[in-house]
Specification:
It is a multi-pass membrane protein. Helix content is 74%, strand content 0%. The chain contains 21 helices and no strands. The chain is globular.
Length: 417
């Protein structure tokens, strides 16, 4: 019996998975029951969660800033002269935007299956190094076909990051703690939009250096930054509460047990399913809640990425210079950051999701209707003001939807799929 427990302790432990909590030697069979669980009051609990926050959230936020920069900077490159240099038509540019999402959508599930089988830090590092290299190479493409190839490969290599990072967060926090953390992580998308405009404004000044256009340097430098950061993940990104060296043994035990209790059924029991089984795949593919979430996510992505790729061009067409158009995107995205965090904190505090999904979507709907209704070349001030409603109304509901689904789907294999 002792040998069996030791063997189980040596296996990789999936963070937050009830069955793996037992396999880690930290479940009931290892003697960690409620009676010997470390006891902490609310103040101490918050202190421990802050330790996790400070270690996990800044790192994931930086990673997502880089991911969103690398997929969205093509809009900045267009304003900086990419279409002219590559002789792209409007249709070709739109195709280059679209091909990213075909492999991106198809490979998310296989990626999360791999995530469940190996260390999260290793898999995320591999993805980052891969898409950073692709992004760097995108800076030297010479024609439309080269751009299509790199955009497709970017979709392949980035496909697993967002679901992997989202899933990783759900394995560290209880149900009504996770949306606030997800909002901080996802606000990186808004930060990336703001940062992208600022970076593009600065990098565009490198036009002509080494015989390369400014738009090429946007791709090259941002790709190289991704590679540099990705190299450190194997050692710096914590995989699970069970292996978190920055926590004391008592703190690890406390986090593990509160996750186990939070995952329990109404009868106080915990699922003990282990390993991948085909029935989890069938269960995921036959669950109507997942398809509803897919529809919401699909609609949200159309709005989000359509805005990301179009905002610099819309502002440029209002009569501003290319440099000023890049800068004027910054305050718009900062509104998205504030809105995402604000609505997520309210949702966790009130322990409900739907009002904070429907409400922001209503704001975004009014903004889209307004943008379609006004003759924007004649009303640049109003057009620019309405642009603020899009990230402010589109970003928060996505996090609410992800939290909603994550709170209501178990076991973790099904959640990962």
């Amino acid at each position: 019996m002792e040998k069996t427990i030791l063997e189980k302790q040596e296996q990789y432990v999936e963070p937050g998975d009830p069955v793996h909590l037992e396999k880690s030697g930290l479940g009931d069979h290892a003697g960690l029951d409620d009676s010997n669980l470390p006891r902490y009051d609310d103040k101490e609990t918050k202190r421990i969660l802050r330790k996790v926050d400070y270690r996990l959230l800044p790192m994931l936020t930086v990673l997502y800033v880089l991911a969103f920069l690398d997929r969205g900077n093509i809009g900045n490159a267009k304003v900086a002269g990419m279409n002219k240099d590559l002789n792209l038509t409007g249709t070709q540019y739109n195709i280059a935007l679209t091909v990213f999402f075909l492999p991106y959508g198809c490979l998310e599930i296989p990626s999360n299956v791999i995530l469940k089988l190996i260390r999260p830090s290793l898999w995320i590092m591999i993805m980052m190094l891969s898409w950073g290299l692709v992004m760097t190479l995108q800076g030297i493409v010479q024609n439309y076909h080269g751009l299509i190839i790199t955009r497709t490969l970017l979709g392949v290599t980035e496909s697993g990051f967002f679901p992997a990072a989202t899933y990783l967060l759900t394995t560290w926090y209880c149900r009504f703690e996770v949306q606030t953390r997800l909002s901080i992580f996802f606000s990186a998308a808004s930060l990336a939009g703001a940062f992208s405009g600022l970076l593009a404004f600065a990098i565009e000044k490198m036009d002509g250096i080494a015989g390369l256009g400014g738009w090429r340097w946007i791709f090259i430098l941002e790709g190289m930054a991704t590679v540099v950061v990705g190299c450190s993940l194997y050692w710096t990104l914590p995989d699970s509460p069970q292996t978190a060296s920055f926590l004391t043994p008592a703190e690890r035990d406390f986090i593990i047990r509160r996750l186990r209790q939070d995952a329990g059924t109404s009868a106080g029991q915990v699922r003990t399913d282990d390993g991948f089984q085909w029935r989890y795949l069938r269960a995921a593919l036959s669950d109507w809640k997942i398809y509803l979430a897919v529809i919401i996510y699909w609609g949200n992505s159309i709005c989000l990425y359509g805005f990301t790729y179009s905002a610099p061009t819309i502002i440029l067409e209002l009569g501003y210079t290319a440099a000023n158009a890049q800068l004027l995107t910054i305050p718009i995205y900062l509104v998205g950051v504030a809105s995402t965090i604000f609505f997520s904190v309210l949702a966790d505090r009130h322990q409900t999701r739907w009002p904070f999904i429907v409400g922001p979507y209503s704001v975004a709907l009014l903004g889209f209707v307004g943008l379609l209704s006004i003759p924007h070349p004649k009303l640049p001030g109003l057009t620019y003001a309405l642009l603020f409603t899009i990230p402010g109304g589109v970003y928060p509901p996505l996090i609410g939807c992800l939290s909603w689904v994550g709170n209501n789907i178990a076991p973790t294999w099904k959640r990962a799929i």
